[in-house]
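Homework help thread (please don't just give me the answer)

Our assignment gives two proteins as sequence + structure token strings and asks us to describe the second one. The first is just a warm-up. Here they are:
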Amino acid sequence: MTNIAEFVGLDVHKDTIAIAYCEGGPLAEPVQVGPISSDIQRVIKALDKIGPRASLRVCYEAGPTGYGLCRALLSAGIECIVVAPGKVPKDPGRRVKTDERDARDLARLLRSGYLHGITLPDAAREALRDLVRAREDVLRDLRRARQRLKSMLLRHDRKWSGKSSWTVKFREWVRSQKFPAEADDIVLKHYLDEVEHLEMVRDHLGEQVERLVPTLGEDVLFRSLQALRGVSNIVAATVVTEIGDLTRFASAGRFMSYLGLVPSEHSSGSRKWRGPITKAGNGHVRRVMVEAAWAGRLRPSRSLKLLRRQEGLDPAIVDIAWKAQQRLHKRYVRLRGRGLPQNTVIIALARELAGFIWAVGQAAAQRPAA
């Protein structure tokens, strides 16, 4: 086993990287090296001057520069991890923050064993994750575009009397609206065209996600997750691309905690207080968990669409999906009967659903790909 002689912290930015390292001893002060250019070859040369590659352990915080640097260092034989910024301890009393200090802090924390790397996705998974996130961005833009259109109509006292918006009848009603000023007609048409364009892009990206996600080699997990009611192909794709192997979580509780769906807690002595969910971890998966949990309001049933999604799956997975329907609906009825707000109940269902998704992941991992 190789002894780690130097612990290196990198504060990575677009154009520069600050480098600092600590010797293995607990009392050794960090040594400042950078900043240097963010060119990968220059970074490797600077690390070679610190010590032999086999004796280095390097870390940096995840950020907009991605994982390219980490992959390059690993390919060069240098051990490197990427840490989540939210998991890096901060000094609450500090009033001076510089790149050099950040690099020194990372080196100290790495030497102390406080930092643990995230699971690094491979290039294919990262590319598909970007595709799923691009669709999520389009959905956000679509919500804003729809709100702009409805706000304009409301400003002119044009109120839709139907129960549901964005149906065929609603769109026909929007197109029938005429204003005294030609400029308002132009604006309304622009807003409606923008909504329909974003809907087309959303559908196109959704089709590409469904087509490409199975190419990751995790088709069994992708199909198995869709056995759960409320877990559409987009929800399943988000879990597969953002999380990947669910067996890396030792328990369902750890998976729930990773998604930030567990209650926050502030306890001291005999006093215990639990607050809202922590919202730590992966927000993309947490969002789709909440979206899928709304299906828990419905009575347990096996629709034709759901049965088609469950065709060819392991009976154990189908059984988990049926138990999920029963438990989520029962919990919804019980919590609503206690007078809890519906949004609070849905968050509770999302936490339960995450546990069933973890269980499906364990079962899917035991079944070889077809």
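The one we have to describe:
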Amino acid sequence: MGEAAVRVAQSCDYVGAGTVEFLLDDRLDFYFLEMNTRLQVEHPITEMITGVDLVEMQIKVARGEHLPFQQADLTIKGHAMELRVYAEDPMNNFLPSVGTLTKYRPAKGEGIRVDDGFTEGMEVPIYYDPMLAKLVTYGQTRGEAIQRMREAIAQYEVEGVATTLPFGRFVMDHPAFLSGQFDTHFVKQYFSPETLDASIAPAAAMAAKVALALHLENKKKIVTIT
């Protein structure tokens, strides 16, 4: 695929950042889909596993500068994955969800990267792309990257609009995704609001139990002074 992507760029004398996309069939034959003559929203994944700032390199090339490395200098280290945190409601056919971000606290920690443009209190309007952030995790193995994504989703707090975070957790836990045996029909084959409800019910029940326990513990500490 890499060699084919290079030939696509060379065939039209393309210079600059670009993304070539292919489709893979069940026989592992791949087919050219399209070339985007820009960086894709998934570019942080490449940055995480190569250590190269693609935005900086894009600007350097546009200014006529030469790249400070050759292809042979680049290596891939570890695994990364990205979840697009959209203001969309997975319980309502992923329709846009608008409103005020009454709470917005992105995940933080080792191996976690968040590229966003929103802060708590801002409005999510109907007029633009509803993506709030790109949530990216890194690990030495794919399993470690997945586990970090689970932890990052659990940390991420958003109130005021519905988001794709619960759907992201559903994907991270699904056997088809974990095995790598899935295709572009993943949502059609495996996802429904009912399955999402079933997947988050245990976590919601546990959260309720923890909240109740904290409430009862705090009641014990209350001292009445007359």
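TA reply:
I won't write it for you, but here's a hint about the kind of observation we're looking for: The chain has a mean pLDDT of 90.
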